[in-house]
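Go through this chain for my students:
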Amino acid sequence: MTREEVKIGFIGFGNMGQAIADGFLYTHTLKPSQMCACAVNYEKLKKNTEKRGMKACRDSKETVEQSDIVVVAV
């Protein structure tokens, strides 16, 4: 698997999860389509993922199913 193929999911997308995702985006390490996240407050999560071009997942199960690597950021 190459860097261009890897999918990363975030369980929890508060300050830490967003900072990590922003770092990947800022350095062009990953594209937004390679990342997804879930969080307790789905509406807030959607707002925070959409502005980055990422996918919002409804729960941790969906996040894990969509990801090769999972970052627990709670």
Remarks:
- The first strand starts at residue 8 and ends at 11.
